[in-house]
């Protein structure tokens, strides 16, 4: 729970298998006194999102170290290892990268930490994917095949989100999660809370939406009764959320999502969500801003008032339960 599985430096590995890519979500420590549930609720889309762009002649394997099934596989040895990196598990990602690189695999690092700190990640990678993996991954694999892999690939988030393929959920170990239906309908957020990564200087994450019909189709295709929206804030554009709810309602499925407390401004929207199958919302109640005079974080008075509205949500709208902060 608290330590990653050991990577034995003495392990002997076989030859590299061409056109085989291994995708890894690295281990991060878990609090042994807290529920393990949130780690297996639903998978991150970091890897499955761009996995969908893998050419058919490539073999693909997914490994999430947080499922506690041990270290990632190495027989056969992958030609390419793609690793997602967040600040919280960067050290483990680098350890994995070194282990595979020293045995001949090409290691590609991507994800939020690569986007924010490429210089820190570069020494551990054959190539960095800075930004949207959906655009970069097929280019990277094509260059691996052509033996001209570059040290860095970059893409913005300016493309039409509706053109992205559905995440490739078929590579997930289905029985390891409560549901494999992690859905994402939007990227970005109209707010800019000072503590949120979306407020990072220089980060350009335009607000983008997929068509509600695309989301409904993905929900149906994964054939599970429950889905989790992993959007930063599904309520960022209330009119879009309303349309999404109208499209989801006939499916007769249940789902939950992260929203900001702003959605309590509109009681009818909460009701629409509940009727469309929303059984839970994750509400971020952190509402801090930096007080430069005192050099400390302080709770903003406006958000403080909103925070007091939180307990009214489940009482007013019986189907929605306010559960936790991110
Ligand atoms: C699922 C999730 C979790 C899950 C699982 C995380 C996991 N790694 O397995 C759980 C619930 C455990 C979790 C916990 C936490 N989380 Co979290 N989580 C998310 C969430 C909701 C979805 C992630 C996702 O699927 N994104 C969608 C994918 C498609 O986007 P992406 O990761 O950026 O990937 C794209 C690119 O970066 C790129 N890419 C990514 N990896 C790679 C790799 C390669 C090889 C390539 C080519 C490209 C590539 O391609 C993708 C497509 O464009 C995000 C919010 C969000 N919507 O992103 C927060 C988020 C990632 N979490 C966040 C935080 C703060 C946490 C916690 C610290 C919260 C806490 N206080 O405990 C913990 C930390 C846990 C840990 N120790 O790491 C922040 C991170 C901020 C930051 N700058 O790092 C986010 C962004 C939420 C937010 N708005 O603040 N989280
Ligand atoms: S509402 Fe949530 S997602 Fe939007 S900026 Fe604030 S913390 Fe980030």
**Annotated CATH architecture of the largest domain:** Alpha-Beta Barrel
Portion of residues within helices: 25-40%
Order of helices and strands: EHEEHEHHEHEEEEHEHEHEEEHHE
CATH class of the largest domain equals Alpha Beta
Give the count of helical stretches: 10
- Give the bound compounds: cobalamin, iron/sulfur cluster
- According to CATH, the fold-level topology of the largest domain is TIM Barrel
The best one-word shape is globular
Q: How far apart are the termini?
A: 20 Å
CATH-level-4 superfamily name of the largest domain: Aldolase class I
Radius of gyration: 21 Å
Question: Main beta sheet: strand number and arrangement?
Answer: 6 strands, parallel
Structural class comes to alpha/beta
Number of beta-strand segments: 15
Number of domains: 2
Uncertain ranges: 314-326
Q: Strand arrangement, largest sheet?
A: 2-1-3-4-5-6
Mean pLDDT, as a whole number? 90
Strand-residue proportion: 15-25%
């Amino acid at each position: 729970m608290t330590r990653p599985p050991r990577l034995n430096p003495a392990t002997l590995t076989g030859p590299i298998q061409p056109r085989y890519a291994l995708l890894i979500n690295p281990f991060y420590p878990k609090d042994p006194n807290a529920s393990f549930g949130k780690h297996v609720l639903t998978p991150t889309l970091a890897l499955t999102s761009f996995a969908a762009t893998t050419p058919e002649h490539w073999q693909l394997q997914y490994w999430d170290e947080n499922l506690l099934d041990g270290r990632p596989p190495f027989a056969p040895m992958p030609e390419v290892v793609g690793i997602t990196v967040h600040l919280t598990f960067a050290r483990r990602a680098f350890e994995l990268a070194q282990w595979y690189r020293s045995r001949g695999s090409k290691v590609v690092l991507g994800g939020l930490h690569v986007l924010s700190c490429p210089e820190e990640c570069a020494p551990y990678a054959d190539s960095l994917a800075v930004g949207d993996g959906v655009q970069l991954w097929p280019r990277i694999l094509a260059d691996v095949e052509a033996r001209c892999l570059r040290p860095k690939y970059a893409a913005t988030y300016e493309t039409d989100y509706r053109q992205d393929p559905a995440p490739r959920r078929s590579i997930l170990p289905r029985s390891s999660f409560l549901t494999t239906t992690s859905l994402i309908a939007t990227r970005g957020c109209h707010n800019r809370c000072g503590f949120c990564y979306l407020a990072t200087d220089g980060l350009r994450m335009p607000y983008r939406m997929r068509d509600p019909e695309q989301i409904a189709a993905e929900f149906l295709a994964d054939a599970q009764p429950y889905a989790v929206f992993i959007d930063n804030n599904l309520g960022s554009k209330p009119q879009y959320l309303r349309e999404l709810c109208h499209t989801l309602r006939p499916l007769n499925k249940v789902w939950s999502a992260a929203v900001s407390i702003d959605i309590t401004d509109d009681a009818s929207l909460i009701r629409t969500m509940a009727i469309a199958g929303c059984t839970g919302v994750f509400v971020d109640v952190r509402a801090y801003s930096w007080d430069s005079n005192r050099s400390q974080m302080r709770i903003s008075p406006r958000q403080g008032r909103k925070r007091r509205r939180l307990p009214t949500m489940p009482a007013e709208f019986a189907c929605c339960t306010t559960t936790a902060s991110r």
